[in-house]
Each structure stands twice: as structure tokens, then as C-alpha cells.
Fold this sequence. Notes:
Blueprint: E1 36-40, H1 43-58, E2 60-61, E3 63-64, H2 76-89, H3 93-105, H4 122-126, H5 135-138, H6 140-152, H7 155-182, H8 210-231, H9 237-257, H10 278-283, H11 292-299, E4 305-307, H12 310-316, H13 321-330, E5 333-336, E6 339-344, H14 356-366, H15 370-377, H16 385-390, H17 417-426, E7 428-430, E8 439-442, E9 455-462, E10 465-474, E11 480-489, E12 494-498, E13 510-514, H18 521-538, E14 545-550, E15 555-560, E16 587-589, E17 598-601, E18 604-614, H19 632-635
Parallel strand pairs: 8-12
Antiparallel strand pairs: 1-9, 2-3, 4-6, 5-6, 7-8, 9-10, 10-11, 11-18, 12-17, 13-16, 13-18, 14-15
Amino acid sequence: SHFTTHAFRFAEICCSEEPPSDVSALAYRSSFKEWGDFSSSNVRINGGYELVKNAMNANLLGVQSDCPHREKIQYGGDIIADSPAAMHLYDMSAFYRKVVLDWADQQWDNGAYSGTSYWLMLNDQTGIGTGSGETVWASAPVVMTARHMQHYGDIDFLERTVDKHMKWLGFLHEHFDRGMLKKGYKEDLDGYWKSGSGLGDWLGFRQRDTWLTHQGFYMASARSVAYIAEKLGITGMKLDAALEISNKVKERIAGLYLKYNQGFLPPDSRGKFMSPAQEMGLFSRIVPGDRRCTVLRHYFTRIGHTWPGSAEMNFLEHIDKETKESMKASGEVTKRGKKDAMGWSQWHGFNEGIFAVRYALKTLSETGYHNVALDKANGFGVGTWEYMLSHNATTLWESWWRSEDLYSHNHPMLGAAAEWMVSAVAGLELEPTTTGGREVQFWPRFPNDASTLSYASATQGTRRGDFAIAWEFIDVHQDTTTLHIRAYVPPDGKAVLRLPEHRNGEGVDSILKKALVLPDIEEAKLMSDDVCASRRKSKLHGFGYNWEFDRSTMLWMKFNRNKSIGTPCRHFLFHSHLDKAEWDHPITEPGTSENGIEVILTPGLYDVVVDDWKLEPEVKSTGKEWRIGDRKEYYMSEDLGPYCSDSDSFEWNIDDASHLI
């Protein structure tokens, strides 16, 4: 080919006496509608969202590549991991249809899918043999078809691909168990405590539980086939066989991982710190209902560790004494043996790989520990978005640590957290059992303390129109505030609003009203966008510092730098233009002790006010190693709250595409 593309952050224009004044750059990717957005009062969380979005924009040109300057390969695991974020940001209907068909075109005669959209040696190295890619990576076509249906409702696409996916499930049914034995996995997992053959939860800080991810995505393939068959009205043996396989694999996982009541871990206790673990069992509805609270409690015993990465160790050798002492005082630096080292955190940052990062955040927010999820997202030091931003990142890195020679600095595979920001921080996601994006769920979760977050908002495009939500704390006092929520349902849409409730399940009275006449929403959007653009252009409100290496002193120095990335922006729902709306008579929805009370919203603009919303200070750990410690205040607690025992979410529902895996 005489045409190729590469991504870059900086370009040098040389050979002129004066800097050229007429140079412009054009960023481009495949053409599809951008229909999602998110913002909040928290600069670090906003910055993380922008890192994901910028990396996505750089890796969606013809195929969804891993990085735009190197391999540029369509990896199945990467797509499964970060497609929830991509489908929030953009209308990916045509793009992901092509992705699945790319895989279908090269399916082996025996039914095996490869790990990429064309065959690689990676298959033999990490798959179960006979042409199959690594089970997670090779499950991309069938899992993505189910997600495609949830978002876009394309029945013709299901009909076009269902036979291919059933052939893949037939291949797994015939070859999977024997292939796992050949790869060294014993049926009882005797002696299994560290990463085996496979890729698994790629590129976190921990050992990877590759047995769990192989099995989990075998289960997910069967669930996806059952989901597709049900949507097509296929009944009888084909549907029953898929459900039987999914339940058999689920019971196999639960039987081994709950065998000794350790909290969803391999039978060999030495494997207790692998990833993923409890978060995957809970999110994917593998853990039985009567064990969920025990598993959640055990989850809080996980700890972080120090990190011996060469870039981080070299950094600590090239900072002045005052800076190092400051980093020690903050907990960012601790001891690894006799040496100073940075530490990665379980609860104040990220250690997870490309799948568990989503499972962790979603599980915490869904089970009543949204404040802990926010702690992870708002963390600092190695293994956080703050760390990337402080080293001048503009796109998401391939690894949580700094790599100047191996791993990419423009790689969206760790980007699933962007969807969590929308679904939990703002509170807007597709209803799990919807198809074609017909119905959304408004379920905002709130911080314990307004200093962490005081407002958040999101817009989610669908085939039915753009849904939107925004919430804010107003009149904040030490322990109470007024909670204000606005939500918009487009003319052809439907939504449910989960009424605000405290983490302990205690309900509160909510005053709800609806606009009598819909104001000019598009005008409010334009005016709000102009305000946001002005704030970003000023560079006064975004992430404000970065490290730079001074070659004259051979030291790393931290400088204050005005940047636009991370700039908080108010949503159009709170623009003064909408204050002119006429509202109907307010209705008070009384709070109850039963969590999960929902109100159906028809098309229109809604306003919700909760007076005297309770705030509480965050529990702060103490000690030199607080960042890498566990959360004793939760696993020692008698009461974990009502959410882990919420019977509505015990079992996977065949219509639920959100929790397939």
C-alpha cells in the first residue's frame, strides 16, 4: 500500500527562519456520530474520561486498533473490554457490525474464532488449540453481537450471524475442556495459584487468573448465544443447549471458587490475590445470592503492594529530598525492602487489568459502595489517571505504570471506566434488558462527602434520541445539603428513575415535577457548549500540573501548568435558559426503607429536589501504608448494607445484555 496512517502527539516543523503561521492539523477517524458526553466537578475523573475519549478517537480508523502507531490490530479482548465506553461515546452500529463480520469472514471450518480479526500465532500460544484464539479474545464476535442488539436492535444482524455463533459454541462444547487440560489446568485446580496459559485480565499489576477468564467467557459465549436465540424466537434444543452450557460452566466456577468459603477465590489460597476475583463473580452473577454478602465482605480484604517498575524506581532516584519526603508523607512512596518505592493501591487507585477495572467500579457502585469506587477514580500516584495526567498524558496509556520503551501511551483497552462514569457517577445507562436503546435507567449514585464530587452530568445518545441527566449539591452544610436532579427523556424514549437513597438503603422524600411545555433544548445545549468551550480555552479550570525532567540538574521537577484537560463544565440541563420552563404541580414521592424504588418517566423534562440530603465524612485510613492497605472498616462490619442481598440481582436474566460477563 502507498497509504498509511500513524498517530502522534507532537510534530516538528523545521527549516524556516520564522515559525510558520499557516499550519493546521486535521484529526480524523471513521465517520460515525458522537452522541455521548460526561462531566463532573472532579478534574481527575473528567481527565480520565478525556484520556479514554482521545485514545478512542485515535484508534477507530477502519478497525478498532490497539494503538495507532504500532500494531494497529483489532484485538478481541480489547474490544470486549472497552466497547461499553465506545458505545456510550459514539453510534457504533455500523462499525461494530463490520467488526463482527470481520471475524465471521475468517471463522475456521470447525467453528473456532481467532483472537483477532485475522489469524495470528497468538492463537496457538494462548488459545485452547485447534485454531481457536484465547477464549476471551475469541468470544468478541458473539458477545459484541448481543451488545449490538441491546444498543441498536438490529434483528437482521442477529439472523445474519446466529449460525456462526452457534458453530463457535459447538466448537467450545467439543474442545474446551480437553483443551484446558492440555494447557495444564487440572479439573480440581490442584496447585493453581498464578497465571496459566492465556491472556486473561491483561496488564494489571496482579497475577492474572487465566482459568477464571477462560471459563467465564466460555459461559459468556453460551449466554450470548442464548440471548440471541431468544431474541430471534428460536426455541427448543438450540436455546436449551446454550442455557445448559452457560449454567454448567457457571456452576463449575462457583463450585471451585466457593469451595472453602474463601470469598470466590481459587482453591489454592496462594492464588487469593489474582485478578479478576470477587468483582467478576459478583458483577457477572456467578456468585449465588446467599453467598454474595460473604464474597463482598471478603473483597475488602484485598490489598495493594509496592511497585518495582524501572521507570518509577529511576524517577525516585532523580527527585530532590524535599519532594521525596512530601511523597512519603502523602503515602505515594513507601518502602520495598530497604528501598523507597511507589505503591499501587487496591482502594485508592487501580491495579486491575482491562476487564476487572470495569467489574470493580460497577460492582462497588451497584452494591452500595459508590464512595469506594470514587476513591479509586479520584486516587493519585502510580495506577491512576492522576499519574498519567501528571506525566503530560493526553491519551490513555496501555499500562497503569510509566513505560518509555515497551507499552503504548495511546491505547484505549483500559478505558471501560468511562462507561462507569456515565452510568454511576452521573447515573445514566441503558436499562439492562432493553433492546435498540429504547429504555434507559436513571440511577445516580452520590458521594458521601461533597468535597469529592458536588455535581455530575451525562448525555447518552440512542436510536430513540438523546437522554440526559444532571445532578448537583446546593446549599452544602457540614452534614446536609439539597440534592437537585434534572432528567430529560426524548420524544420517542422511555426511562425509569431510581429514587435517591442513602447507602444503607434508607429512602428520602423526593419532590418531583415535570415541565408543562418543553423548552428549547437545542438552544440550551448550544449556549451551554459555548460556556464550556470558553472555560476550556481559558485553561484555568483543568488539570493544573505536570512533572518535567530538568536536564541541567538531572532532576524531575513538578510545575504548575494551565491545561484544558479535565475542565469541569455544567450541563445544559442546569443552564439558566431552562429555568424559564413552566412546571406542573410537584408530587412528593415518599422515601421508604425498601431500596430500589423506581418511577417511570415518559418523554419530557423532569426536576427532582431532595431537601436535607445527608452527607458524611469519608473514613480516612491512617498509617504509612494507608494507600496500599485493605478496607477494615467494611470487612469487619456486621452490616454491609442491603444491596449485596438484593434478590433482584441474584441471577442472570436471559434478556440482560449488561451482565453477560
